[in-house]
Structure formats: structure tokens, C-alpha cells
Design brief:
The protein is mainly α. The protein has one domain. The chain is about 70% helix and about 5% strand. It has 14 helices and six strands. It has helices spanning about 1-20, 30-50, 60-75, 80-105, 110-125, 165-190, 190-200, 200-205, 210-240, 250-260, 265-285, 290-305, 310-325, 340-344, and strands spanning about 135, 140, 145-150, 155, 160, 240. Strand 4 and strand 5 (about 160) form a beta hairpin. Helix 3 packs parallel to helix 5. The chain is globular, with a radius of gyration of 22 Å. The two termini are about 35 Å apart.
């Protein structure tokens, strides 16, 4: 565990340097969105890549966190409590949903279908809340127009001290690094190792005396909380929340980010989300090529050429290159003796 945490700290340091240098190349407004999407992809990478739970509901937790923050911010007029609620409500909702699914012994296929249906139900319901009767406190849900004009993140205790611009980017970057380190610590703990064992063989883990259903529910809930945190940060960045956050397209994109970046890693989904989201942003500035077709082509090529994802494939190539012996101009013979190999 100690070695794994040292590796995680090294990754976090490198990532911190990259995130600190990135504003010299890309504006912090766009970078903030990329970091938020990276956190959202990390939430699915955790439960799918390490827990074996294919979930189409990360968009539901993402949107739920954003709407919770917006509604609470309008009613409270300050961001500290809404920020915490934007994490807690998706966590509790994911815990309730996960308990029903995992204790109901649903198969992986039905898990994916149910989480997708829940996301689409949120999408349909939020689109139908345009009437004046759809009010939570003083906050109108707004239907397809969403909820604009709420209190964005501020310094705790001072609602007039808004956090925006470069400061907000660095806040989201620090939040992503903290979430990464906490998730890495969780996976290195006995709980994380049991969760990965459940992914490989749930029945064998239960025969060893562990409650696989409770652990899957908790892991699912943590993934929901991280997605809710990403949704909360997104709401404060965009200053508006709309039903589009629950859309099928949003759900599909999150899965594509993880597949392209690389399942079974935490860094892979984050990098996949940032690269593909920026590519979508760049393609959105022109009308010659449909960006959906481009993303679909990237997914197909990645599955065919790099089925493990970009990050695991590049990592394996770098390790092979690093371990390749130095021959000093002499090619190793297959039948060389240990002494000859040592000399070479």
C-alpha cells in the first residue's frame, strides 16, 4: 500500500505541474470545463474499471448534483451548504438505487438498463417542469430552459466574494487532485482490494465471508458522490443548469471517455475525457464535420487498435521500451549464457 501511495503522489505531482502550465496554452475558462469532465469520467472509471459495474447513470448523478446546488443556492443565497448538498444528495440517491439493484441480485445487463432508464426519467421529468407549479422553495425548475441566475461559489461566510476566472480553475484542479488521491487511497485499502476481487469473481468473495452487495453499494455511492461534485462545480462554472445534463448523449460520452482513455486505470478516463471534450469543443467551432461522427470514429478505432485504451497501451509500450536491455551494438543471442547476457 505504501508503494502504491508513493506512485499516486508522483502522478499527482506530475498532474499538478501539467495543470499549472496548461493556462499558458488554453484559456482557464475552457480548462475548467475539461477538469470537471475529467472528474466526471473518474467517477465512472472507479465503479466500472475497478468495481466491474457498468453504469449509464453517471449523467443522472452529475445533473442531480448540479440541480441540487442550483436549487439550494437560490433558496439559501450562499454556496457552502448548497455545495455540500450537491455531493450528499447524489451520494444518498446512488446508495438507495445501488442497494435496490445489488441486493436484488440483478445481472450486469439489467444494471446498465436500469441506470440508463433512471437517467432518461430525470431527463424527461426536468423537461416537463416549465409550469409555475414546479417550484422548490423560491426556485423554479424552468423546464427545458433550466435554472439560471443562482449564487455561484463564494468564499465561505462571504456571499459577495465570488470565486471565478483563474481562481475557479485552480480550485477545480485542486479538487480533482484531491479526489484522485482519495480514490487511490481507497483502492489501496482492504476495501478497494475486496472491491476489485468482487469484479473478478463475486461468488468466490462471498464464499470467503465478505458481503459483496454492501461493498458494491458503497462503491457505487462513492462514484455517485464524485459525479455530484463534478455537477456542482459545473453548475457554478456555467451559471445555469438544464435538462441536457441528463441526456442520452451525455451518458454515452462519459462511457466513451472511459473506453478511449483506458478502463482499469484512474488516469486513463481523466485524460480521455479532457482530450475528447477539447476535441469536441474545437470541432464545434466549425460546421463541415459533425463532431458526433468524429467521436464515433475515434471510439471504433480505439476499440480495434487499442482495446485496452490509450493510457494502458502507451504505458505498456513505455515499460517494454524501458526494460529493453542495452546491447551496446551486440544483439543478444537466444541461447546466450547468463554470463554472456550479464556482459551484454
Amino acid at each position: 500500500m505504501r508503494g502504491e501511495m508513493r506512485h499516486a503522489l508522483l502522478v499527482a505531482i506530475v498532474a499538478a505541474i501539467v495543470l499549472a502550465v496548461a493556462p499558458a496554452l488554453i484559456g482557464t475558462y475552457t480548462l475548467t470545463l475539461l477538469v470537471i469532465y475529467g472528474m466526471l469520467a473518474l467517477s465512472l472509471g472507479l465503479i466500472w474499471g475497478f468495481g466491474g459495474i457498468l453504469c449509464f447513470g453517471q449523467a443522472a448523478f452529475f445533473g442531480l448534483g448540479a440541480y441540487t446546488y442550483a436549487i439550494a443556492a437560490i433558496n439559501i443565497g450562499e454556496s457552502t451548504v448548497p455545495f455540500l448538498l450537491g455531493i450528499a444528495i447524489p451520494f444518498l440517491f446512488a446508495a438507495a438505487l445501488g442497494a435496490m439493484m445489488f441486493y436484488g441480485r440483478l445481472s450486469d445487463v439489467y444494471l446498465g438498463v436500469i441506470t440508463l432508464v433512471v437517467t432518461l426519467l430525470f431527463f424527461r421529468f426536468m423537461n416537463s417542469t416549465a409550469g409555475p407549479e414546479y417550484v422548490v422553495g423560491t426556485a423554479r425548475l424552468g423546464g427545458f430552459n433550466g435554472i439560471p441566475g443562482f449564487q455561484t461559489l463564494n468564499v465561505p461566510g462571504d456571499p459577495s466574494a465570488y470565486i471565478f476566472g483563474d481562481a475557479y480553475y485552480y480550485l477545480t484542479a485542486v479538487a480533482l487532485l484531491i479526489v484522485y488521491l482519495l480514490v487511490r487511497w481507497l483502492l489501496a485499502s482492504p476495501f478497494g482490494r475486496i472491491a476489485m476481487a468482487i469484479r473478478e469473481n463475486e461468488l468466490r468473495v462471498e464464499l470467503l465471508g465478505y458481503d459483496a452487495r454492501a461493498r458494491k453499494t458503497l462503491l457505487f455511492s462513492i462514484g455517485g458522490a464524485i459525479a455530484g461534485l463534478a455537477g456542482t462545480l459545473y453548475a457554478s462554472w456555467a451559471e445555469i443548469v438544464t435538462p441536457g445534463m441528463f441526456s442520452l448523449g451525455q451518458s454515452a460520452e462519459i462511457i466513451i471517455w472511459c473506453i478511449v482513455g483506458g478502463l482499469g486505470t484512474l488516469v486513463g478516463p481523466v485524460i480521455g475525457a479532457m482530450i475528447l471534450a477539447y476535441l469536441k469543443f474545437a470541432l464545434g467551432q466549425q460546421s463541415v464535420i459533425d463532431n458526433t461522427l468524429v467521436l464515433g470514429a475515434i471510439l471504433i478505432l480505439c476499440v480495434l487498435l487499442m482495446p485496452r485504451g490509450v493510457v494502458p497501451t502507451l504505458g505498456s509500450a513505455l515499460r517494454r521500451s524501458y526494460r529493453r536491455p542495452q546491447t551496446d551494438g551486440t544483439r543478444r543471442r537466444p541461447g546466450a549464457s547468463p554470463a554472456e547476457r550479464a556482459h551484454v
